[in-house]
Design a protein that fits this description.
The structure is a single chain. This protein is of the alpha+beta class and 328 residues long. The protein folds into two domains: 127 residues, no CATH class; 130 residues, no CATH class. The chain is 22% helix and 33% strand. Strand 6 and strand 7 form a beta hairpin.
């Protein structure tokens, strides 16, 4: 009987392994992966166009960078246009409606309301055309130009392509490179302060800083830079030349950065209030950003606040009194 124990254990293990593999579909043939709608090599993309009704966005890529041609030039982020191309290249149909549509009009595709076109090196194009909504809520009819197939696509997918100019725009008014910052100065309507890094060889978080003559740890200092970096617009920028009053600014902000070679450079920003907004522009820069007055005021007030890690003399005295009161 003892000789049979190893055999019994082996049989039990085999049965258990077979059951586990079956429960995980190890023996079931995987369905073929749905092919993409378009064949796009991202490194061959030279531009794309988004058409929705009468509006049109035209983007062009040259020397690795993106430019908005229509409706008008804007400062662009380094990643949003590339992300759009990635989404277009990964499109897959949700469901085939017909292999060969005799009448595109019944799907709203005779004159599509939306067209998304990617231009490739060599002059070829790939266009996705979107028509009417399907009877099933949340989907629309679509086709690829040059193909007779009509299929449905989820509206959630299409929304990732239906961008507006501001979706590609750089929205940060002040560029803060934390590890390169050596000082930050702010002057807003009579409130002014300067934050200076006193240990330049350490990371921003680990280094000691000074706010005026008061020493701060890095954990507090980064909070001041956070406020500057959070000056963000939610509307289209304007050319700096179109904003009045920047030659007599109410806001002055200066950042000193150290380059990789250790050389320090100053970047100055100016701002002028206009109602509930402050238009901020880098001196010599092309664009001005509309930032809420409240955000600018919070930045200015930040320099007058007590750092979280530092108790005031009054607070320390209160703590000591409280400790003494509990002593018998």
């Amino acid at each position: 009987m003892k000789r049979l124990i190893p055999t019994i254990v082996l049989v039990v293990l085999c049965i258990g392994g077979f059951w586990y593999a079956s429960s995980r579909d190890f023996f079931r043939e995987k369905p073929p992966e749905t092919p993409g709608l378009v064949t796009v090599k991202k490194d061959e993309v030279t531009g794309f166009t988004i058409r929705s009704g009468a509006s049109e966005i035209v983007m062009e890529r040259k020397d690795g960078g993106w430019t908005m041609i229509q409706p008008s030039p804007l400062p662009l982020t380094a990643y949003d246009a590339d992300a759009w191309v990635d989404k277009f290249a990964s499109l897959k149909k949700d469901k085939l409606v017909t292999e060969n549509a005799a009448d595109l009009g019944q799907f709203g595709l005779a004159e599509p309301g939306q067209r998304y076109t990617v231009k490739l090196a060599g002059g070829t194009e790939q266009t996705l055309e979107v028509g009417d909504a399907t009877p099933v809520s949340g989907y629309s009819y679509a086709k690829v130009s040059g193909s007779p197939q009509v299929f449905q696509l989820a509206d959630a997918t299409l929304q990732q392509l239906a961008k507006q100019p501001i979706d590609f725009m750089e929205k940060t008014a002040v560029k803060v490179e934390y590890e390169k910052v050596r000082s930050l100065s702010v002057d807003w309507k009579g409130t002014s302060w300067t934050l200076t890094k006193t240990e330049p060889d350490k990371s921003s978080f680990e280094a000691k800083w000074k706010l005026g003559e008061r020493e701060l740890p890095g954990v507090d200092a980064t909070g001041y830079m956070d406020r500057a970096a959070s000056l963000i617009t939610e509307q289209l920028v304007k050319p700096t030349a179109d904003v009045e009053g920047l030659n007599t600014p109410e806001l002055r902000l200066s950042l000193k950065h150290a380059g990789d070679d250790g050389k320090e450079t100053d970047t100055d920003y100016v701002g002028r209030a206009d109602g509930e907004l402050v238009w901020i522009a880098r001196q010599g820069g092309e664009w001005a950003y509309a930032v809420p007055v409240g955000a600018v005021q919070e930045l200015a007030d930040k320099g007058t606040e007590q750092p979280e890690s530092e108790a005031s003399p009054q607070e320390e005295a209160a703590l000591q009194d409280g400790a003494g009161a509990t002593t018998p």
